[in-house]
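Table 4 source record.
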Amino acid sequence: MIILDSLLVGGIRFVLDKLAAAVDQEMNDEGRLREELVANQMRLELGEIPEEEFARRERDLLARIRELRERQRGEAAAPVGGGRYTVEGVETTFEEGEEGASSSERGGR
């Protein structure tokens, strides 16, 4: 009985995790948010929604897009490995005629 209960709970947790991931991905899809903006513009032009409703929806969607972009910039700027960088190799080239560059410094390439 305990095994059956743990399997049931594990299965429900798996499904809910997948559902949460799908909702998160849908909510954070900039393309989908842009499509909503266009759809709202069309509804306004067809007279389906008033100007005030369109302005409110547009403001909310643009705020979500801005928030998403800021979050993506923050993730891209965050260094990997807890803020520590390691230099694994450096490649340099010197042009002929540079002062102080001997043939051995040029690497012979």
